[in-house]
């Protein structure tokens, strides 16, 4: 009989470890999102150009997801409702007339949500970004290293206690171990 | 750890960056006209400055853009960083 592969989440086995985190820190693996890497010339205008965050280290929410600034001519578009192929095709149609490109990178990263009053201290232990809500609040993002792995860090909310981390799937286990280990001091 | 100021992302840890050698080496105008010796000079020969040195750096863990920096090779102090195509002020 043919065996079919079950789709599984890289952090499925960490659910109990996340549930046992000390009070003041909550880590949750978020459901898969479709992600497309969009490259466009810096001077692109029009509806697509206007929708993109232009400021370095910014992100904006859209009708079904968000757009993250990755570089002066590069953005990561995330969608919760459109499938990977659909999102890529939609963006490619928009990018093509502007000499841009859109490539599906949904399998590259997974999303983690870190919340709680100790969340900022926890993350500060692994990266040099100033995470204080006066500079890193809702709408700010940073590509940096957390622990030893590269992440895209997004700030949500205005109080500095709500973050989303996009991490490469193959490094997700490492990051989960790191977060659980770093959280022990808040026990 | 030393922080390097990426012209796009702002101050970041040094480990996020990648060194790219001496900056502002112009590609020969007529590469086909070069002798082997002058081609070798273009490809391999670099200054070994003691003091202020213009270099290329890449923010490889961040925005992955190349930029230029002026660094004091005696003290490893970054004096300034600027985008590709800009001139050091």
Outline the structure in words.
- Chain B: It comes from Kineosporia babensis.
- Chain B: GO terms for molecular function: sarcosine oxidase activity.
- The complex is a heterodimer of chains A (187) and B (89).
- Chain A has 187 residues and is of the alpha+beta class.
- Chain A has two domains: 12-31 and 108-186, Probable tRNA modification gtpase trme, domain 1 (Gyrase A, domain 2, 2-Layer Sandwich), CATH 3.30.1360.120; 34-104, 2-Layer Sandwich (Alpha-Beta Plaits), CATH 3.30.70.
- Chain A has five helices and ten strands, in the order αββαβββαββαβββα.
- In chain A, the strands form two sheets. Chain A has a five-stranded antiparallel β-sheet with strand order 1-7-10-9-8. Chain A has a five-stranded antiparallel β-sheet with strand order 3-4-5-2-6, with helices on one face.
- The longest helix of chain A has 15 residues, at 169-183.
- Chain A starts with 14 loop residues before the first helix and ends with a helix.
- The mean pLDDT of chain A is 92.
- Chain B has 89 residues and is mainly beta.
- Chain B is built from one helix and six strands.
- A four-stranded antiparallel β-sheet of chain B has the order 3-4-5-6, with no helix packed on it.
- Chain B is elongated and about 45 Å long.
- Chain B starts with a strand and ends in a 6-residue tail after the last strand.
- The interface between A and B is medium-sized, with 14 and 15 residues.
Number of helices of chain A: 5
For the record, the CATH class of the largest domain in chain A is Alpha Beta
Amount of beta strand of chain B: 35-45%
Query: Strand order, biggest sheet of chain A?
Result: 1-7-10-9-8
CATH topology of the largest domain in chain A: Gyrase A, domain 2
**Multimeric state of these chains?**
heterodimer
Number of domains of chain A: 2
Average pLDDT level of chain A: 92
The SSE string of chain A, one letter per element, is: HEEHEEEHEEHEEEH
Organism (chain A): Kineosporia babensis
InterPro entries (chain A): SoxG (IPR007375), TrmE/GcvT-like (IPR027266)
Protein name (chain A): Sarcosine oxidase subunit gamma
Protein name (chain B): Sarcosine oxidase subunit delta
């Amino acid at each position: 009989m043919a065996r079919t592969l079950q789709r599984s989440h890289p952090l499925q086995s960490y659910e109990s470890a996340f549930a046992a985190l000390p009070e003041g820190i909550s880590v949750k693996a978020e459901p898969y999102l479709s992600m497309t890497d969009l490259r466009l010339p810096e001077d692109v205008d029009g509806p697509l150009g206007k929708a993109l965050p232009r400021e370095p280290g910014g992100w904006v929410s859209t009708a079904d997801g968000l757009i993250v600034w990755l570089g002066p001519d590069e953005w990561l578009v995330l969608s919760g409702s459109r499938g990977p192929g659909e999102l890529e095709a939609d963006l490619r149609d928009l990018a093509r007339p502007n000499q841009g490109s859109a490539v599906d990178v949904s399998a590259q990263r997974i999303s983690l949500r870190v919340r709680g009053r100790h969340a900022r201290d926890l993350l500060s232990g692994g990266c040099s970004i100033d995470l204080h809500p006066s500079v890193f609040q809702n709408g700010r993002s940073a590509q940096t290293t957390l622990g030893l792995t590269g992440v895209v860090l997004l700030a949500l909310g205005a109080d500095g206690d709500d973050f989303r981390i996009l991490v490469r799937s193959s490094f997700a286990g490492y990051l989960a171990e790191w977060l659980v280990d770093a959280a022990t001091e808040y026990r | 750890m030393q922080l390097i100021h990426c012209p796009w992302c702002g101050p970041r840890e040094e480990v996020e960056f990648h060194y790219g050698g001496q900056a502002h080496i112009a590609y020969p105008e007529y590469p086909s006209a070069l002798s082997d010796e002058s081609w070798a000079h273009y490809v391999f020969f670099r200054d070994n400055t003691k003091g202020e040195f213009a270099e290329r750096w890449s923010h490889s863990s961040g925005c992955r853009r190349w930029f230029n920096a002026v660094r004091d090779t005696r003290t490893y102090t970054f004096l300034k960083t600027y985008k590709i195509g800009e001139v050091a002020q």
